[in-house]
């Protein structure tokens, strides 16, 4: 099983067998409140019938069509609709099947873009400590979580990492923290060391998720944007979790008012129903390929299932829901309420930090002797006693409920967590 202590799981499996709206059903027949939107993906809630219908109809119309030298209307229509929500100047889409594929595609697009512009010496890639960018070799190379890297050798050459922005002086900030914008200046030091003309791209999560929810300090992303632009370096936002309304706008780029050159996405794109990812690409990058030297095949890259017709149908039905139900705005509407509920936990024992933005939350504990044990115990208690699904990453509980969550369900999630924290030692 992925990212799972398999031996432990075998002893005490947690099995889900059904899902509807805000709830899962467990194998032992309990109703479990979903505090994590599955894995940050089921933003419109579970079992949405219009998605089911769209998938069924597409399967009947055409189950599969190749996208190598062939096309079909779904992905084109989806791309046209999606880019109405991306920041100005980002109007092109390359479809993948996952966040990991989106990241590796974006890194390859960055390298190929510079080549197409006659700057093939720009090959260095810059990620960030504690970054998570999926599990492809590109993604783990620019990623900065040691457990994801340490078993897999030397990874890509020519990769540097900015420092992360999880600062103790920002602990218990509600929303965006004040301290740390200057950490973006790490990039200036890398430029001074290597020369800007060797650097292809910088990739960061605007809000880091897998590391336990790390927020960008006020001005940090703006500063990264300013430096990358000044030096001709592409800026990639990995929005696999922040995309599709999670932080109160379609993308974190909209929320922070910073336009990167590419955005990677997946998860909420199809409400989790069918695997699909996307790389949103600035027009100028697209144009460099279209006007570049090789008109036979501009970008020699792709997947059998790029722009899969069934995934595209699910994506279109999902976008209909987001638009019709105002779900891209909902996290912003609930943000204060959510923050209040979350930060009400701050006086409980062992709490090290609480962080929030949109409908994302994190409660970090002081570790016991075994790092991660307290986080796991709280997660375990929430599932078995609290009938609530939360996520533990180390000693942090991360929360990201579906965007259809009600105010009373917010209280339920926080109540279950509170009980678990009080019970677990
Ligand atoms: N990037 C980020 C920021 C993610 O959070 C994730 C998944 N949690 C990925 C990439 C990888 O996505 P996938 O698991 O779909 O490959």
Automatic annotation (TrEMBL):
Keyword match 4Fe-4S: no
Family per similarity comment: Belongs to the class-III pyridoxal-phosphate-dependent aminotransferase family.
Keyword annotations of the record: Aminotransferase, Pyridoxal phosphate, Transferase
Cofactor (UniProt): pyridoxal 5'-phosphate
Pfam families, sorted: Aminotran_3
Species of the source: Saccharospirillum salsuginis
One example GO MF annotation: transaminase activity
Keyword Transferase: yes
GO cellular component entries: cytosol
PROSITE patterns found in the cross-reference section: AA_TRANSFER_CLASS_3
Protein name (record): Aspartate aminotransferase family protein
